[in-house]
Amino acid sequence: MKELKEYLHQLPSDFIEQLEQFGVVKNFEADTEILREGEYVKLVPLVLEGVVKVFTRHGDKELLLYYIESGESCIMSFNAGFKNSPSKVFAVAEENAVLLLMPSEKVNQWIKTYPLLNELLTSSFS
Fold first, then answer.
1. Which of 14, 33, 85, 97 has the highest local Cβ count within 10 Å?
2. Domain total for the chain?
3. pTM of the full structure
């Protein structure tokens, strides 16, 4: 597996050091559940490799909201982590994926210190 700085070379080296210290890089096999609806978000994902599907439920139906690809994060996870509220979505690896899982309390600090993270999260929203 690549080192974090290879995935995130555009970020300042001091920020990458913070991500290495507090984040967790984890592999997920295809069809693995990453986030459950109703669960509190303590770790905000950033996809390094692969694709993740984000769904919601309406009655007994699952509704696909969006896909998260390399270099993108889940705005719904970020929002739930920021507000310390239960997730309204669930996420599943569409294919084998490598994710950086960032502690939500740190993300809240980092978006103030590192504007590039804020840009990355808001670009995921659009």
1. 97
2. 1
3. 0.89
| Gap between the Cα atoms of 80 and 1, Å rounded | 29
CA 61 to each of CA 57, 58, 69: distance values in angstroms, whole numbers, following the listed order = 6, 5, 24
Host domain of residue 104? 4-125
| CATH number, domain containing residue 112 | 2.60.120.10
| CA–CA separation, 67 and 19 (whole Å) | 23
The DSSP call for residue 94 is S
